[in-house]
Amino acid sequence: AQKMDGKGYTGPNEWLAKKFEELYDLYQGQVGKNSFAIRGYQRAAGIMRRIDYPITTGSQARAIPGIGQSLADRIDEFLSGAQGRAFYENTEQARCVALFKDIYGVGRQHANDLYRLGARSIDDLRTGRYSLTAGQMIGLQLYDDLKARIPRNECKDIFEIIRSEAQAIDDKVWIEIMGSYRRGQDSSGDVDILITREGEEGDSKKGIVKELIQRLKKKGLVTHDLGTPTDWSAPEAKWMGVGRLSTVHKHRRIDILSIPFENWGAALIYFTGNEVFNRSMRLYARKQGFGLNQRGLYKGVMREKDGTKLTEGELVASRTEQDIFDALGLRWRHPHHRRP
Ligand code: DCP
Ligand code: MG
Ligand code: MN
Asked: Ligand 1: which atom is nearest the Cα of residue 188?
C-alpha cells in the first residue's frame, strides 16, 4: 500500500499514523497510564499505514478491525483540525508532571506545585532548591531503580529471604506474597508481603514486624524505611520500605503487612486486590447489607447517610477467603482472575 521514500512512509493516511505515533511517544513511559491504550496508539499507527485508501471520518475508520470507538474519536479530532487531546496534553507542564509523578511519594498535586516553582527535570529536583519529604528524597535518590518493574523471579527471591527470616523468628509464622504477584503477573511494581502468627491470643498480640525488619537490615536486604508502623509490636502493623537482593541488584519497593491470625482470610482478599476488584467486592457486600474490609466481613454495620461507619457490626467471616466468598454467596474467584 505505501512505499518507503527514504524519509519514511508515504501512504494516504501517513499523517494520521504520525499523529498516533505522537500520542504514543507522549504517553509511553508515563507510569500510571493505561499501557493497553498506549499500545493501542502504536497499533493504530500501523493500521493507518496498511490502509491504502484515504480515511475521511472516524466512523469510516471504526469499521476497520482493530479500530475501536476511542481510536475513532481520536481520528475525528485529528481530522477536524481542532486542538485535540494530544495538543492539550502535550505541554511542557504535562510532561514534567508525568515525570515527577514517577518519583515515589510524589502525587499529581505536588508534581504540579514543583512545576510551578520552576522545576523542569529530575536533576532540577536534585539541586536541593525544592522542598521534599524524607521519603520523596529517597524516591529521588533511587529514581531509576524504583520506576523499573520487578520481574516475577526477583519478587520470589526477595520473598524467600524474608520468609526464611520470619520463620526463623517463629515457626508458627504464616507468610505469603501478595499483590500483583499473587494475581499471576509477570512483573510487579513492588513486593507485597502478608504475615501472621498462628497460636494463642496472647502470642498473636506480639507482632513480629520489628524483629523481622531488624533482621532484614542486618542481612542487607532492607536498605531504607519509607513508612514505619506507629506501634512496631502491634499485631496489625504496616511497614513500607526499600530493599535489594545484592549490591548488583536494583533497589525495590517492599510492603509488609502483619495482621492478627483471625483476620487472615480478609487480609488475603484485601492485599491480593486488585484495587478495582476490592472496590467492587466491597460495594457488592454493602448492597447485601454487609461491610467488608481487610479485617473481615461484618453484618449489622450502622452507617451515616454519607456512608461513614457508626458501628463495626458483628463479624461474620474472616479466617479464610473461601469463608468470605461463601458468606456473600459468591462463587470462588481465583486470584489470577481478580480484576474488574
Ligand atoms: N490496595 C487497595 N487499595 C489501595 C491500595 C492497595 O485495595 N488504595 C490493595 C489492592 C492491591 C494491593 O493492596 O492489589 C497491593 O497494592 P499495590 O499498590 O502494591 O498494588 P499491586 O500489587 O496490585 O500492583 P503493583 O504491581 O503495581 O504493585
Ligand atoms: Mg504491589
Ligand atoms: Mn504495595
From this structure: 26
